[in-house]
Amino acid sequence: MKNLKTPPYYTSLASALVTLFGNSVAIAQTDRLSGGDINKAYGLTLNTGDHIFMKANAKQNASIFTAEAEGISAISATKTIGTPEILCTGTDNGEDAGYSFILERYVESSEPVGDYWSNLGRELAEMHKADTQKFSNKKFGFIRDNFIGLSEQKNSPKDSWVQFFRENRLLPQFKKAEKYFEESDAAFITKLLDHLEDFIVEPEKPSLLHGDLWYGNVLCSSKGKAILIDPASYVGHAEADLAMTELFGNFPQEFYATYKEVFPMQGGYESRRDLYNLYHLLNHLNTFGTDYLSPVKSIIAEYMGN
């Protein structure tokens, strides 16, 4: 990514470990870790004493990890909030069809205590206030397309947030979800997209977003610091990140209170929140199936009055 430090890419796990840790390196222990619906996760203990976190996927999905590393690099470049140290990405022929991987320094996690949530609110607000010129050649977008889960996420640069959210977020997901909707739904969907400017507003300034900011994508380190993981980053309206924090259960109230002190929100956010989350629910509909059809239709009805 232009102007950003991104990790190296290797064509085997062995060459990655040797380059990073020396010729005598060996994996002393491998632990399969739980969590996540998309990747296999492992804790690697090396004979050097280093602890590594590794995610693996099919070899043809290597671009998912490259995009993730670029998102982490972008967030890290704002110097506002914690991120894992990405060591490298790569592929390995391995067994069968091989696999792709990403290696990170292992983050020892703990339960949030004290001012953790207030600090997270402050740090996220500072990230949203950071300059975004290096991340997109227009107001909104990103240097490259990336992923939201396994779904491709378009980041074609736009000068208008409404245009970006319509063409790069809602429209691609609605097209993928056509099979779930009846003909009577299509008219309301078209009307919603055509009149999106009636419901969302242009931000006072563009912000770098995490892009997939739910509880599971924030770690509390053993030192009590928030670490953002698994981003789907792009430059957009900060409200979209805040909305995502409320989709699957709110963050604690001290998070929101501190965030708003540092970066006051535009009036009317509550009336826009569900529309931002429509994107994520559509993605879940397209990824996991009909359990998410009812909430998607409810949001369409909320804005279309049907």
Total helices: the number is: 9
Largest sheet: 6 strands, mixed
Evaluate the radius of gyration: 20 Å
Q: How many runs of DSSP E, i.e. beta strands?
A: 12
Uncertain runs with pLDDT below 50, 5 residues or more? none
Strand arrangement within the widest β-sheet reads: 1-5-6-4-3-2
Mean pLDDT across the residues is 95
The residue fraction in helices comes out at 25-40%
**Shape assignment:** globular
- Helix-strand category: alpha+beta
Distance between the termini: 44 Å
Order of secondary-structure elements: EHEEEHEEHEEHHEEEEHHHH
How much of the sequence lies in strands comes to 15-25%
How do the helices and strands line up, and which of them pair or pack?
Elements: E1 9-10, H1 13-21, E2 27-33, E3 40-46, E4 51-58, H2 62-77, E5 86-92, E6 99-105, H3 116-129, E7 146-148, E8 151-153, H4 161-176, H5 183-194, E9 207-209, E10 218-220, E11 226-228, E12 234-236, H6 238-245, H7 253-262, H8 269-288, H9 293-304
Parallel strand pairs: 1-5
Antiparallel strand pairs: 2-3, 3-4, 4-6, 5-6, 7-8, 9-12, 10-11
Descriptive report:
The protein is of the alpha+beta class. It contains 9 helices and 12 strands. The protein has helices spanning 13-21, 62-77, 116-129, 161-176, 183-194, 238-245, 253-262, 269-288, 293-304; strands at residues 9-10, 27-33, 40-46, 51-58, 86-92, 99-105, 146-148, 151-153, 207-209, 218-220, 226-228, 234-236. The strands form 4 sheets. It has a 6-stranded mixed beta sheet with strand order 1-5-6-4-3-2. Strands 7-8 form a two-stranded antiparallel ribbon. Strand 7 and strand 8 form a beta hairpin. Helix 5 (183-194) crosses helix 9. It is globular. The N and C termini lie far apart (44 Å).
